[in-house]
Design brief:
The protein is mostly beta strands and 555 residues long. The chain contains 4 helices and 32 strands. The chain starts with a helix and ends in a 5-residue tail after the last strand.
Length: 555
Amino acid sequence: MRRLVAVLICCFGCGLVWMSKSKAQSRDWMTGNGDAQRSAWIRTDAKISPESMQKPGFTFLWKLKLNNRPRQLNSLAPPATLERLIGYRGFRMLGFVGGSSDRIFTIDTDLGRMEWEKQLTSTAPARPGTLACPGGMTTGVVRPTLAALPPLPSGGGPGRSNPARSAVGEPGQGAVTLANVRPSPPSPPPAATPRPAQPPSPPRLNPANPPGGQFGSGPFLVYALSSDGRLHSMHLSNGDDYEPPVEFLPPNANAQGLIVVDNVAYVVTDGNCGGVPNGVWALDLVSRQVSNWKGNLAGQAGAAFGGDGTVYVTTAGGGESANSLVALEPKTLTVKDWYTADREFSSSPVIFEYKGRTLIAAATKDGRVHLLDTARPGGADHRTPLYSTRALTASEDFAPGALASWQDAGGTRWILAPTTGRQAIDAGFTGAVTKGAVVAWKIVEQNGSPTLQPGWASRDLIAPLAPTIINGVVFVTSSGEYRTGNKQMTAAQRAQRSSRAVLYALDGRTGKELWSSGATITSFARGGPLSGGMGQIYLTTYDGTIYAFGFPMEH
């Protein structure tokens, strides 16, 4: 009977239209900071807009307490999302949440209920963590995405108020969940120690049908990196293993910014945790070859990608590549080009289009934002940016770990960053900012060259996270996390001194406040920006709770 229902749904779905690659990229939250460019920008939404947020309707929807144990201050990662899954159980909107205790939670984000959850097996013995090396799963669940820059919005956009769209793949493939009817191969028994290097296994897939289900070519998968360094590929509809986990990193690394781009998985490592060298790692999902480029990487969002697949990372101090933005070849991670600043970088890069050029922005620890051209970062001497904002009296305890970028309907490009109050004042922003804020620069032309001009600053925020932009609305988070330069203070002491998180929605062009979550949230937040789309946003908190806010869906 289940097979019959699946076939009927498949036949029905064949009469509907499968979303294009670019539209899928611009609506779903695929990875950390949303996309391969790390823009934290959902370009279109049928319900969220500066106009709709000034009317009643956007509200608290639901919350779920998840079975996850924090590791130091790490808890839950923001969910990757799927707009529409159509299978034999009907329609689903899904969010995929990674937990620090090597656990994955998949939630029906429309109804606020658990769809499936899974404990990842780990072959590495557990170690006591520290603030710098917390242990456990340190990066979120991701869906595969593309390096190509999504097109700029042309207005409007599909959403949950529009007719349903099908998750039907190529001819003969059927609906998404039909690919999951065949049993998954059994996982290998856990090993006591990491396996020695072996010749790569023959790929299960024809390269013409790449792994991950990228926008219409199945199977449809999600990926997670467990604490033992193995990459898990799972069917997104039920969590079954698509294939046995693949060795990617040595165990107990502090991994950040997992992303699957054009059939290659990338991640960065920090803190020399577990003896794992700092740097960026690439795993070819077809050949199973692993490449590594060593450097003391900066930022919390990981590598960013140009439209041609070039990998961009930033570095802090130490080593030959100190204080640099480095361009690497995809897969091999061979150095292509670089720009060296006079201070350590603090943020991951963000990449965007501007008047026919592809530009990069990244922040250094002195609070400056550096603007570069991907065609030649740093110019002939590798030290000359297109523009950089003035140096600030930045707090080393709170330099931006990630930026965000979006373009408004008038064509103005914006760069946003979380800052301390002191940074905002020194950068030329006005307002009563004393603790922290999210600030927005706009790019303007001066003598034919792009420059950054202060736009607006948010209200005072406690330890703000990097912002999320949905269809012209900027969502900012006053995380409530207690941050201090006192390295003797434990994670438990910091957690005790932290306060509740509060969300705010701002008009992206003016910074005008449109909405607030008030006292709804009861714990503090940490990590990356909110994820969202389809009329909703999601926040995960230290106490293991995920909150959803948005416009209710008509049932």
